[in-house]
Amino acid sequence: MTPPSLSPRQSPPPPPQTTIQSIIPPPPNTAHNPTDDQFTRNITIHALTLTLVTLALALRIYTRARVVKAFGWDDGLLVFSWCVSIAMSACFIAAYREGIGRHVWDVPIETLGRALEVREVFLSET
Asked: Could you name the domain of life of the organism this protein comes from (predicted)?
């Protein structure tokens, strides 16, 4: 049996949507797209900025401790701030893995709870 041909005014049927049990449905004319997230870009940005900050901090500590031989309280605060930013990035990366960074209608209900828990850990940190 041959498939019926489409007339010039008919368009092909829409692709089948994935079924995700989300907290809210997608807006009209929007389909579920669980692969449309910013995970890779967000991880890349965190890795790049943490690498640059770590290099800058290492150079400052080396200069202050070895060259100038005057490691001050401000340097200690910078090291503390660096540790806090590492912890913050770790919380963000954990949240990205659980669904933060996607549209809420693309996050399954099972995952949303864990993502919000990770988010609360971060918010309690700041």
From this structure: Eukaryota
